[in-house]
């Protein structure tokens, strides 16, 4: 039985609650402390989840912390992750991992010098629904994937998030904020990307917050909010990716993949579960039976009903991979290639030119039913 690695968190905002509340589901990790530049925020989370509240510097020095989870805003992901690595700790970052290839390669070099691991969200591709699709592809049920479509479109975070400002600044926008879920899932299903092209626009130069406590306040928009892209994969597949925060309603499926032998309708990669539909050649489309995958089991109530949420699965897999001496699935290489794709789309939108990828990666190992069960803590 591998010992539990001590986990600390830097950044006690909105997303931290999911990490703190879901971490006990998994073996190999134990949440021990949290930090934030706002000590009141750190103390509030610490009290809520019975942790230590630390200053950032004290957390970096803490002897009982092995991995630090970086939940800061994207604009400072690189700087904070660099501090974590320089302090001799493994780092697991929220998405997007970094905002440039240069930043990612610098972190890679720092980690390799010290024998440390880097991991990054998203880990939703480890969900039962997406691993069922992976199984269909790996067993040949779809044949070779030749093309596909992805649509992630809505009307922005100013309608629900208490502090939506950073979503509309460089380093965010729909490609870098929501795109990681879709692009990471595409990479784990289809493989690495060869080149991209895109059109981008910013229809509204400012947004009006309608969520409390800042309803009525206007915020500037300094990054494209509609990006329509094309991804050519190394295996020859071509996928359309449309991302927008300028759409009130649409009828597109989140993701469809077209293979030589059939079509698979993939549920929203932003979530772990959902229904997978499949058609073999010209046969009628059918909803596949629920796979007995633990990360597809609904465990949380949301506005849409009970949903599967196993955030921190990627963190737990990394911790156990460290102990077992194997690669972890939410790897630096995977995250950096996704960043390459996303920044390439934005660059293409600016220049009107095709952009070749500077990186590549292996598809992460599939997470089957047995492997997923092995990540879970034993029920008492």
TrEMBL record:
- Annotated GFO/IDH/MocA-like oxidoreductase domain ranges read 130-264
- The entry's keywords: Oxidoreductase
| Annotated Gene3D superfamilies | Dihydrodipicolinate Reductase, domain 2, NAD(P)-binding Rossmann-like Domain
Q: Please give one Pfam family short name.
A: GFO_IDH_MocA_C3
Gfo/Idh/MocA-like oxidoreductase N-terminal domain mapped to chain residues: 6-118
**Parts of the chain that traverse the membrane:** none
User: What's the domain of life for this entry?
Assistant: Bacteria
User: What protein am I looking at?
Assistant: Gfo/Idh/MocA family oxidoreductase
Which organism is this protein's natural source?
Answer: Mesorhizobium abyssinicae
């Amino acid at each position: 039985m591998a010992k539990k690695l001590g986990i600390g968190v830097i950044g006690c905002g909105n997303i931290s609650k999911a990490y703190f509340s879901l971490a006990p589901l998994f073996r190999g990790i134990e949440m021990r402390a949290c930090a934030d530049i706002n000590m009141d925020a750190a103390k509030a989370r610490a009290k809520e989840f019975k942790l230590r509240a630390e200053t950032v510097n004290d957390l970096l020095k803490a002897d009982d912390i092995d991995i630090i989870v970086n939940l800061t805003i994207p604009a400072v992901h690189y700087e904070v992750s660099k501090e974590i690595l320089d302090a001799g700790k493994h780092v697991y970052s929220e998405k997007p991992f970094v905002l440039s290839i240069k930043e990612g390669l610098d972190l890679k070099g720092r980690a390799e010098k010290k024998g440390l691991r880097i991991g990054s969200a998203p880990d939703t591709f480890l969900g039962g629904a997406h691993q069922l699709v992976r199984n269909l592809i790996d067993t040949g049920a779809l044949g070779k994937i030749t093309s596909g479509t992805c649509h992630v479109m809505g009307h922005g975070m100013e309608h629900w998030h208490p502090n939506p400002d950073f979503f509309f600044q460089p380093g965010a926008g729909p490609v870098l904020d929501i795109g990681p879920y879709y692009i990471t899932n595409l990479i784990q299903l289809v493989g690495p990307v060869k080149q991209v092209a895109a059109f981008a626009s910013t229809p509204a130069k400012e947004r009006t917050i309608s969520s409390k406590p800042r309803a009525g306040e206007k915020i500037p928009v300094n990054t494209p909010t509609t990006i329509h892209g094309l991804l050519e994969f190394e295996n020859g597949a071509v996928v359309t990716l449309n991302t927008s925060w300028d759409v009130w309603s649409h009828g597109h499926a989140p993701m469809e993949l077209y293979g030589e032998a059939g079509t698979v309708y993939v549920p929203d990669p932003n979530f772990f579960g959902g229904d997978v539909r499949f058609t073999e050649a010209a046969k009628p489309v059918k909803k596949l039976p629920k796979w007995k995958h633990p990360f597809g089991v609904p465990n949380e109530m949301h506005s849409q009903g009970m949903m599967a949420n196993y955030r921190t699965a990627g963190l737990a897999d990394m911790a156990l991979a460290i102990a077992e001496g194997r690669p972890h699935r939410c790897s630096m290489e995977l995250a950096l290639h996704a960043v390459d794709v996303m920044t390439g789309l934005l660059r293409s939108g600016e220049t009107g030119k095709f952009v070749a990828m500077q990186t590549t990666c292996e598809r992460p190992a599939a997470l089957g039913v047995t492997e997923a069960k092995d990540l879970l803590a034993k029920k008492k």
